[in-house]
Design a protein that fits this description.
There is one protein chain. With 354 residues, this protein is an alpha/beta fold. It has 17 helices and ten strands. The protein has helices at 2-26, 49-53, 56-59, 72-80, 91-99, 144-147, 149-155, 173-179, 192-203, 228-233, 235-254, 256-266, 273-287, 290-295, 302-315, 324-327, 343-347, and strands spanning 31-36, 62-67, 86-90, 104-109, 116-121, 136-139, 164-167, 185-188, 207-211, 222-227. The strands form three sheets. The protein has a five-stranded mixed β-sheet, with helices on both faces.
Amino acid sequence: MRRILSHIGLLLAAAMVAGFFASAANAKEPVKITFMMDWVIGGKHAMFYPALVKGYYKEEGLDVMLVRGHGSSGTVQAIDQGHAQFGFADAGVLTLKDAQGAHVKYLGAIFDNQPLQFLALEKSGIKTPKDFIGKKYGTPLQSMSGALFPGFMRLNGLDPKKVDMINVEIASTIPALFSGQIDLASGYSNSGTVIAWATAAKENRPVVTIPAGKYGLDIYSNGIIASDATVKNNPELVKKFMRATYRGLKYGVEHPQEALDMLYAAHPEIRSKPIASAQYREALKDFLTPAGLKHGLGWMDPGKWKRTRDIIFEAYKIKSDLKAEDIYTPAFLPVVKVDNVPKKFLETKVFGRY
């Protein structure tokens, strides 16, 4: 009897082992995804780390690698050419690239609020666009901030030719402003503007910010993108990625310091936590707009998309029959609403007054 039981036990054990290996063989390997950012990873990107660290991508069967970009133009190109599956890039750049022949879709807004700002030293007296007249504006002329400027001035009933536009490399604009080489610079609220604030505090020379969106340039900025081919041929993958991403974004919104800690752990090379924290604070302000809070994170307004398309076409003198609905799709955007807006974090002042 013992021999029979022992034999049965061995058979059961063998069956269990065989079942384990059969199950492992049949288990699907996670799909490897490259998610490319728009630039060097910094404070504004903290919102993307909860989906990685909390395992939301893993739960969807995705193995996501988040990598830096080299400008939105490069990110759009990488997506278009299949070097990355998903990206984080500017809507204006995407619109321009699609008009030039790229095939990339904008899937959901992140920076619903336009983060482009104009910067001036407080002592200059520059407070509104009409004060730009007769001043020197330093910016990379081929960049979005350069190309949009003439249209921005015309939106405000002003002659752009009455501003002296000077070609200045992006890394040199803030130093040029503080050295007096230019009167006006541009920065994005969630990146360069914060660096200007830090410089202002260090040198005790306050700066003022003039938001482009407040003065007519109310167009979409950064959001999630993917190639038309991925959207068409692998819609289930897109759904999974968007579901996990926006689930993580919600967590990052509601737990801002935790999201920042995840960012710091992944990128110990980030030298200034005060700057990164302020950049994330401003990024959340650009994300948590009334539209996003009402309809859900990433919600997109067709009227605003038409305006985005029209302003970019005017700025770059584009003649194309490309329509706004050819550039974006809301089909994969999950309805995700914020339960707890982090008011204390959003109201925290940095560098004394900003």
